[in-house]
Design a protein that fits this description.
Shape: rod-shaped
Structural class: mainly beta
Strand content: 15-25%
Largest sheet: 6 strands, mixed
Helix content: under 10%
Radius of gyration: 54 Å
Low-confidence stretches: 161-171
Distance between the termini: 144 Å
Number of helices: 1
Oligomer: single chain
Length: 173
Protein backbone atom coordinates (compact mmCIF):
# COMPACT_ATOMS: atom_id res chain seq x y z
CA UNK A 1 0.00 0.00 0.00
CA UNK A 2 1.29 3.39 -1.00
CA UNK A 3 0.26 6.52 0.94
CA UNK A 4 0.73 9.78 -0.93
CA UNK A 5 -0.14 13.43 -0.53
CA UNK A 6 -0.16 14.61 -4.13
CA UNK A 7 -0.36 18.39 -3.59
CA UNK A 8 -1.12 21.14 -1.15
CA UNK A 9 -4.20 23.32 -1.16
CA UNK A 10 -3.71 27.09 -1.43
CA UNK A 11 -6.71 28.83 0.12
CA UNK A 12 -8.33 32.15 -0.69
CA UNK A 13 -6.59 35.41 0.23
CA UNK A 14 -8.08 37.10 3.28
CA UNK A 15 -9.33 33.85 4.92
CA UNK A 16 -8.15 32.21 8.14
CA UNK A 17 -7.42 28.50 8.31
CA UNK A 18 -8.11 25.51 6.12
CA UNK A 19 -11.54 24.73 4.70
CA UNK A 20 -13.48 21.63 5.72
CA UNK A 21 -11.88 18.51 4.26
CA UNK A 22 -8.30 19.87 4.43
CA UNK A 23 -5.88 19.91 7.36
CA UNK A 24 -3.37 22.37 8.78
CA UNK A 25 0.14 21.14 8.01
CA UNK A 26 3.03 21.13 10.42
CA UNK A 27 5.71 23.85 10.43
CA UNK A 28 8.25 21.33 9.09
CA UNK A 29 5.98 20.42 6.16
CA UNK A 30 5.30 24.14 5.49
CA UNK A 31 9.07 24.81 5.34
CA UNK A 32 9.52 21.83 2.97
CA UNK A 33 6.80 23.18 0.65
CA UNK A 34 8.26 26.73 0.76
CA UNK A 35 11.81 25.71 -0.07
CA UNK A 36 13.91 28.83 -0.54
CA UNK A 37 10.83 31.07 -0.07
CA UNK A 38 10.60 30.20 3.67
CA UNK A 39 10.39 33.22 6.00
CA UNK A 40 10.12 31.42 9.33
CA UNK A 41 7.70 30.74 12.23
CA UNK A 42 5.69 33.59 13.82
CA UNK A 43 2.86 34.22 16.29
CA UNK A 44 0.79 37.03 14.83
CA UNK A 45 -2.93 37.80 15.09
CA UNK A 46 -3.44 39.15 11.57
CA UNK A 47 -2.19 36.16 9.54
CA UNK A 48 -3.92 32.81 8.91
CA UNK A 49 -3.33 30.15 11.58
CA UNK A 50 -0.81 27.49 10.41
CA UNK A 51 1.05 27.64 7.12
CA UNK A 52 0.46 30.68 4.94
CA UNK A 53 1.70 32.25 1.71
CA UNK A 54 2.17 36.03 1.48
CA UNK A 55 1.73 37.95 -1.78
CA UNK A 56 1.72 34.64 -3.68
CA UNK A 57 5.48 34.16 -3.13
CA UNK A 58 6.89 33.76 0.41
CA UNK A 59 5.78 31.26 3.09
CA UNK A 60 5.62 31.37 6.85
CA UNK A 61 4.02 29.51 9.74
CA UNK A 62 1.73 31.20 12.32
CA UNK A 63 1.59 29.61 15.78
CA UNK A 64 -0.98 32.11 17.09
CA UNK A 65 -3.87 30.14 18.72
CA UNK A 66 -6.62 31.77 16.60
CA UNK A 67 -4.80 33.57 13.79
CA UNK A 68 -6.59 36.18 11.74
CA UNK A 69 -7.20 37.47 8.25
CA UNK A 70 -5.06 39.62 6.03
CA UNK A 71 -5.84 40.52 2.39
CA UNK A 72 -2.31 39.53 1.24
CA UNK A 73 -2.09 36.15 3.06
CA UNK A 74 -3.44 32.78 1.87
CA UNK A 75 -3.72 29.64 4.04
CA UNK A 76 -1.68 26.67 2.75
CA UNK A 77 -3.26 23.34 3.70
CA UNK A 78 -2.55 19.64 3.45
CA UNK A 79 -4.66 17.62 1.06
CA UNK A 80 -5.93 14.52 2.90
CA UNK A 81 -3.87 11.39 2.33
CA UNK A 82 -4.85 9.15 -0.54
CA UNK A 83 -4.52 5.40 0.00
CA UNK A 84 -3.99 3.40 -3.16
CA UNK A 85 -3.02 -0.14 -4.11
CA UNK A 86 0.70 -0.94 -4.49
CA UNK A 87 0.23 -1.91 -8.12
CA UNK A 88 -2.53 -0.26 -10.12
CA UNK A 89 -4.95 -2.68 -11.70
CA UNK A 90 -5.41 -2.60 -15.46
CA UNK A 91 -8.88 -4.08 -15.12
CA UNK A 92 -11.63 -1.70 -14.01
CA UNK A 93 -13.77 -2.61 -11.06
CA UNK A 94 -16.89 -4.45 -12.16
CA UNK A 95 -20.08 -2.43 -12.18
CA UNK A 96 -23.05 -4.14 -10.52
CA UNK A 97 -25.51 -5.40 -13.09
CA UNK A 98 -29.22 -4.92 -12.86
CA UNK A 99 -31.20 -8.09 -12.36
CA UNK A 100 -33.96 -8.85 -14.81
CA UNK A 101 -37.45 -8.51 -13.48
CA UNK A 102 -40.31 -10.53 -14.83
CA UNK A 103 -42.97 -8.78 -16.81
CA UNK A 104 -46.50 -9.66 -15.71
CA UNK A 105 -48.65 -11.56 -18.21
CA UNK A 106 -51.09 -9.48 -20.22
CA UNK A 107 -54.63 -9.45 -18.94
CA UNK A 108 -56.99 -10.96 -20.03
CA UNK A 109 -55.27 -14.19 -20.95
CA UNK A 110 -56.19 -15.42 -24.45
CA UNK A 111 -58.51 -18.44 -24.69
CA UNK A 112 -56.98 -21.82 -25.49
CA UNK A 113 -59.42 -22.46 -28.38
CA UNK A 114 -60.50 -19.65 -30.69
CA UNK A 115 -64.21 -18.91 -30.81
CA UNK A 116 -66.15 -19.50 -33.03
CA UNK A 117 -64.68 -22.58 -34.63
CA UNK A 118 -63.57 -21.90 -38.22
CA UNK A 119 -65.76 -23.30 -41.03
CA UNK A 120 -64.41 -25.27 -44.00
CA UNK A 121 -65.88 -22.74 -46.49
CA UNK A 122 -66.15 -18.99 -46.30
CA UNK A 123 -69.17 -17.72 -44.43
CA UNK A 124 -71.21 -14.89 -45.93
CA UNK A 125 -71.67 -12.21 -43.35
CA UNK A 126 -75.37 -11.57 -42.72
CA UNK A 127 -76.61 -14.73 -44.48
CA UNK A 128 -79.77 -16.04 -42.87
CA UNK A 129 -80.93 -19.63 -43.53
CA UNK A 130 -84.58 -19.79 -44.72
CA UNK A 131 -86.98 -22.59 -45.60
CA UNK A 132 -89.17 -22.89 -48.66
CA UNK A 133 -92.34 -24.85 -49.17
CA UNK A 134 -90.42 -27.65 -50.81
CA UNK A 135 -88.31 -28.20 -47.70
CA UNK A 136 -85.00 -27.23 -49.26
CA UNK A 137 -82.85 -24.70 -47.51
CA UNK A 138 -81.76 -21.58 -49.27
CA UNK A 139 -79.84 -18.59 -48.10
CA UNK A 140 -80.97 -15.05 -48.42
CA UNK A 141 -78.24 -12.47 -48.32
CA UNK A 142 -78.53 -9.34 -46.24
CA UNK A 143 -76.38 -6.46 -47.34
CA UNK A 144 -75.02 -4.46 -44.49
CA UNK A 145 -74.18 -1.49 -46.68
CA UNK A 146 -77.79 -0.99 -47.93
CA UNK A 147 -80.46 1.13 -46.32
CA UNK A 148 -82.14 -1.81 -44.64
CA UNK A 149 -80.45 -4.39 -42.47
CA UNK A 150 -83.32 -6.89 -42.82
CA UNK A 151 -83.87 -9.30 -45.74
CA UNK A 152 -86.24 -8.11 -48.42
CA UNK A 153 -89.28 -10.26 -49.28
CA UNK A 154 -89.70 -11.76 -52.71
CA UNK A 155 -92.18 -9.89 -54.92
CA UNK A 156 -95.74 -11.18 -54.70
CA UNK A 157 -97.43 -11.77 -58.07
CA UNK A 158 -100.44 -9.55 -58.60
CA UNK A 159 -103.60 -11.25 -59.95
CA UNK A 160 -104.64 -9.96 -63.31
CA UNK A 161 -108.18 -8.68 -63.60
CA UNK A 162 -110.42 -9.79 -66.46
CA UNK A 163 -112.10 -7.15 -68.50
CA UNK A 164 -115.20 -7.61 -70.45
CA UNK A 165 -114.95 -6.70 -74.05
CA UNK A 166 -118.62 -5.83 -74.19
CA UNK A 167 -119.73 -2.42 -73.31
CA UNK A 168 -123.44 -3.10 -73.33
CA UNK A 169 -123.47 -5.19 -70.27
CA UNK A 170 -124.47 -8.34 -72.07
CA UNK A 171 -122.64 -11.40 -71.30
CA UNK A 172 -121.32 -13.45 -74.02
CA UNK A 173 -121.75 -17.12 -74.06
Amino acid sequence: VCITSPTVYIGTEGTNGCPIGYTTMTAAKCQEVAGSYWLGTYSIGDAPRGCWRMDGVTYGYNEHPTGGTNPTYEPVCDVPFVVSTATPSSTPTATPKATATSTPSPVPVPTATPEPTPTPRPTVVGAVPTSTATGTRTRTRTRTHTRSATPTAAPVPVAQSTRSSHTTGESGT
